[in-house]
Amino acid sequence: MIESTETPDVESWWNAADVDEVAEMLASRRSRLWQLLDPAEIAAWVFAEPGAAPVDPSPVDVDGAWSAGLDETRRRSWALAGWVARTVVPEAASTAGSYWILSRLDDSAPVLRLTVGVLEILGLYESGEAVWLRLHAAPVGLAMDAGILDLEEWERHGIEVLEDGTKTLAEEKLLVRCPDLDTALWLLRQPPVIAGLRLLSCWVAAGPFSFEGRYRPEVVGRAWQAAESLTEAETGSEPAAVQGFDRPYNGVTVPADLPLQRSFDAEAYRAGVDEHDRLCRLVIDHLAASGLRGGAGLHGVPVDLAWRDAEGRQFIAEVKSVVGGNDVEQLRLGLGQVLEYRHRLAVREVPAIAVLVVSGGVDPLWRDICAESKVHLLSGNDPPATWTELFGTALSEP
């Protein structure tokens, strides 16, 4: 099993300026990927607490009996490949086959390879005898400067930093080799390593992808499913079903220089993002005051916030900033989104109580509209007692 190691405080080796720098870097890329994902949000995800995408939705359905003929080592190899893909590829479920693939070279020594964009970032022998990873060097450097990572400790575990012959980001990435699966899992429990893999993955996924013809859905589906066998002790993560959300909320920042293709008011956009973040943190603070944890996403559904109350009931919240007199537009959009997310979760047999949080005062008619749809409407301008009542005690269905 993996050697126990204390997980360092993530905020001790990175700060908001690092997130801003990554957001600017990603926003400068001209790619179809950023039509699907917001570079600022992905930049925050790079440094977020490591956690794998939920097993549902899966990129492809597979027969659960496919691994019956594998020994324990090969099952763990498939699980590791799937867990890395689910943890370090942005929006992995929806981008499989178009931005990344898992391939299996079936020869005398079968090898599993994870390729993102133009670059292979993971390779391992099914026999478990070696695992190699490519990761962006910047997060590793930050952690080393902060005393969080020690390359001499890597050497004591038999981890080698190799010369990498690939040209993509040649001076900005590391190639490391682990002697076995347990060592690779020990390395992957270190948040700066996950951040390095995520940063490299985000960068190369936004470039050309020339391997779509090699995509084998069954390989991705099998590894994706196998990753569920990794225990909490091995991955250091807690299942979404237990904590009530997929990942911690880390906020979204706006790059100082927005991409030129943005055709809207940049100042209004920044104000909206800042207000959205303020409201999210306000909700999380009220939850924390009651001993509850809130986070982002749930079972792959992109809810702004999600949490479980003391009784174990699931909540989701859509948060809408109201700036510049766009309250009606935002209310319509927010209500539609939270109803969609609640329905998507219900289809997956995850019942959730829906909350719509907006800034500023709202027309009382909207409280009736939301109540008819069994959605709680909460305004940032509501009296503190209203927030305390809603979050200090369990919410109930209207």
Short synopsis of the structure:
The protein is of the alpha+beta class.
Please state the CA-atom Rg, rounded to the nearest Å.
22 Å
Low-confidence stretches: 1-11, 257-264, 393-398
Total number of beta strands: 12
Give the helix/strand class: alpha+beta
Helix content: 40-55%
User: What's the N-to-C terminus distance?
Assistant: 49 Å
Q: Could you tell me the strand content as a percent range?
A: 15-25%
List SSEs in N-to-C order. HHHHHEEEEHHEEHHHHHEHEEEHEHEH
- The structural domain count equals 2
Mean pLDDT: 82
Outline the biggest β-sheet.
Answer: 6 strands, antiparallel
User: Please, how many helices?
Assistant: 16
Strand order of the largest sheet: 1-2-3-4-6-5
Shape: globular
Description:
With 398 residues, the chain is an alpha+beta fold. Helix content is 41%, strand content 15%. The protein folds into 2 domains: 10-237, no CATH class; 247-392, Trna Endonuclease, Chain: A, domain 1. Strand 9 (305-308) and strand 10 (314-320) form a beta hairpin. The radius of gyration is 22 Å and the shape is globular. Mean pLDDT is 82; it is low at 1-11, 257-264 and 393-398.
Please render the helix and strand layout as text:
Blueprint: H1 16-27, H2 33-36, H3 39-46, H4 72-88, H5 92-95, E1 100-105, E2 111-116, E3 119-125, E4 131-136, H6 137-145, H7 151-156, E5 160-162, E6 173-178, H8 181-188, H9 191-205, H10 217-226, H11 232-235, H12 240-243, E7 247-248, H13 266-289, E8 294-296, E9 305-308, E10 314-320, H14 327-347, E11 353-358, H15 364-372, E12 375-379, H16 384-392
Parallel strand pairs: 10-11, 11-12
Antiparallel strand pairs: 1-2, 2-3, 3-4, 4-6, 5-6, 7-8, 8-9, 9-10
Helix pairs in contact: 1-3, 3-9, 4-10, 6-9, 13-16
